[in-house]
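Protein in question passed on here:
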Amino acid sequence: MITKLFMALCRISPYLGRLIRRQWYQFLAGYYQREDWSFMNYGYAPLDPQTEKLNLGDDDEPNRYCVQLYHHVANVVNLRDLNVLEVSSGRGGGSHYIKRYLEPKTMVGVDFSEKAVAFCNKSYFVEGLSFVTADAEFLPFEDNSFDVIVNVESSHCYGSMDAFLMQVKRILRQGGYFLYADFRGKDKIDTLYKQLRRSGMTLIKETNIIPNVIEALNLDNERKMVLIQKSIPKLLLKLFQEFAGVKGSKIYECFRTGGVIYLSFVLQKWVC
């Protein structure tokens, strides 16, 4: 019943839907404080059997598919010794992975949720990694501050994609890269392309990764179900399962049937 009400309210008004999602993220950040949940994305699984398996430490292995999405997005550019920003860093697992494995000089994660930022600053202790509270549409950084900006599976919740992209371009250094992945309803894909073109950044590469995301959801389904069932009260069980994209959830079926498309992009702010 709660799940149906939640989704119905989101359909009634896009603005109301964004507000509800923001409150939901705040609730999640405060409710679940254990460090065994550090990612909030649907994951990525390579489909080519010849793809070299990503080498992960024992602590990172349980989150392999979520980590692989970050690796797919961020590893297209050599980040070593660069200054990198992740917008909407959530529970911080992605920024934590990038800093340790891809070795940027600095890694900053920003998120609108004060509770999520507090969780990250309490959970991760890596030199050069920090987390601050900020809104994606009003980023509190000076012009030309970062070499690379990463944004994974969060922009669909923003009030204004154009405002976010304007901020990205403003704080990227000349020649810097915007590494981006997210999903949209099939009927909203053209709008996303128009927004990216209006940003003034140059599209270098795009990839439809929906088959990789579906495969990750399939392979990670059992782990997610066990984690949810042992940690979440029955009243919220269906809502968490929907949020996690487990098999049979609405978002899983939208991915599977093609109603929702998941894309990754590389954009660059060219030197003038």
